[in-house]
Write a sequence for this structure.
């Protein structure tokens, strides 16, 4: 089993930036396709971004394309989500996930004030 831990959330004003990180204990992440998802209050959890094992393939939700950047450092066993030009509608709990194996972290809260 993979234990994922997200960090880097917080409160930021609209237009600001945050960088989320996802680390793992007990397993190396380099063999997993990794994704970021988010869930706003009262809404379904939704896809944000996904990155292949090597980092060569990346895909984003239309709502974050051009503002968010997913990356990974397999040497450090981390996956990151750089979030720029944040909007109030980005407010949510953000989760990282091993896509195929369906392991989830507990999430980190991002709040964007207008």
């Amino acid at each position: 089993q993979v234990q994922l831990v997200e960090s880097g959330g917080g409160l930021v004003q609209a237009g600001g930036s945050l960088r989320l990180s996802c680390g793992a204990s007990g397993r190396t992440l380099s063999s997993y396709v990794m994704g970021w998802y988010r869930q706003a209050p009262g809404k379904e959890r939704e896809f944000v971004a996904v990155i292949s094992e090597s980092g060569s393939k990346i895909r984003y939700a239309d709502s974050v394309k051009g503002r968010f950047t997913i990356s990974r450092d397999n040497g450090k066993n981390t996956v990151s989500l750089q979030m720029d030009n944040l909007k109030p509608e980005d407010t949510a709990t953000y989760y990282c996930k091993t896509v195929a194996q369906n392991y989830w972290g507990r999430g980190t809260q991002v709040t964007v004030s207008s």
In short: The chain is about 0% helix and 50% strand.
